[in-house]
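Our preliminary data section would be incomplete without showing what the modeling component actually yields. Below, a chain of 564 amino acids is followed by its predicted structure, encoded as tokens that our downstream tools consume directly.
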Amino acid sequence: MPRDFARIGIVGLGTVGAGLAKVFAGAGFQVVGVDTDEAVRARISVDGVRVDAELSALADADLVIEAVPERLELKQRVFAALGAVVRPDAVLATAASALSVTELAVAAAHPHRVLGLHFAAPVDGTPLVEVVRTVFTDPEVVDDAVALLSDRLGKNPLRVGDRTGLITSALLFAYLNQAVAFVESGYATRDDVDAAMRFGCGLPSGPLAVVDRIGLDTTFDVLTALHAQSGDRRHAPAPLLKQMIAGGLLGVKSGRGFYTYVDGAPVADTASSTADADIVRTVQKVGVVGSGTMATGIIEVFAKAGYDVTYVTRSDEKSARVLAALTKSLDRAVSKGKLPETERDAVLGRVTGSATHDDLADVDLVVEAIVEDLTVKRELFATLDAVCKPGTVLATTTSSLPVIECATATSRPQDVVGLHFFNPAPVMKLVEIVSTVATAPDVVATAHAVTRTLRKHPVDCRDRAGFIVNALLFPYLNDAVAMLDAHYADADEIDTAVTLGFGYPMGPFALLDVVGLDVSLAIQKELHAEFHEPGFAPSPLLEHLVAAGYLGRKTKRGFRDYAR
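Predicted structure:
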């Protein structure tokens, strides 16, 4: 029969501790919260929660959860002190997200009654709890904790071993730290980084907003603890975090972090538009080169926005296939009531197919959407340079190749820009606007203006491998594969931890199988080659699966078998 946990103690009433006190009190438990900071205690005003400054107030607790800052020595002192206070049969837990639960357990009087309970943030709004067992932990203690979490709190407990960062922190914090570094280096703005991950990946929040919610000080402490144990320099906290913490910018709890907050809600900034109307080039006619899914989607997007579109393929047969695919997409929209028949006809009337680049001579913007092969792209840009009129904006949709390599194939590199649409182009709102060292300001402004007429969300970044989305997304996916390869957890457990803990629409392995393991491997290799970051080296398991022809859903087998 599961243990009856009636009285709960919480040590540390910061963001996590206060959240825990609220959740347990709301479920009908008697809760005592302990914190040495009088100001922190004063902020706790929850029915069913009694606050105190002394650990002796926890003498009758059945379960005590330590939630002090992520510092090993501090947590060890708490566990040692609790040994002289709590009953011998009380269960002690740590909310640590990056430290070794085993190292904390050895500081306790009864290590067999110690486990980790890592509640995903926010505690009151996220169902995942990682239940961490050590080599000391009695099995019934784990079973009782799982029953408590699922039956009384309505949480989804996931049993895991004692590993640096568990599942969630190991996957989350390197990604958050990299996003902070992007802002610190000026590679992309706070708003563009967050918008890129929300619109490009469908994430509920951008990484900088997540850092604000966790707390910059907590993020710094977790990264420091991870770095001390992993030695991975991606866990070394970005200097900007320390500088902001010194300035009192801690995130939501202090009212300011990467964003400004009033009563916990972000305050909208009045940001000026990147596109200056005085320097925007006129764009009325658009050319698209390519015949694949991305090219067809881009043609649809521009034609729906009212542009006259000339698309060029390598043959009349391919042009006919593009038109058929476009018509099918529009017909589907009509059948679903999303597009009037008259508008479908108007869209098709604005589209002209061709098998010769000469028909692009009078367009104002050309979007290249051909194969991801640099030699082929450079040949195309040399042709566009010869064919297109002066002032035409030449854009590439490449997701991984250097835009400057396309630009230098022309005599007008100032007119070349990256317009990275996401697939499917008619649905995805994000467009990454990639400027090279040669791109003219009016070309960037024009790209912004055009993107907005398409009802897309433009974000700026410089010409580096992966741009924003892929540079943040694929290392996280690669880390998940490495975790699987290390046999810490299986694919289902990792996907569950991510979807429940982060609120992501898909777990890493479900996403990898959709994207394609070959595509993912190619992007990861580009990132590793560009940044020379040891942590970006593709996981051997990913390479082996690709070598075996297991590429994901398109081959009916990847990390999962879809043929069954």
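The first strand starts at residue 7 and ends at 11. The first helix runs from residue 15 to 26. Preliminary results of this kind motivate Aim 1 of the renewal.
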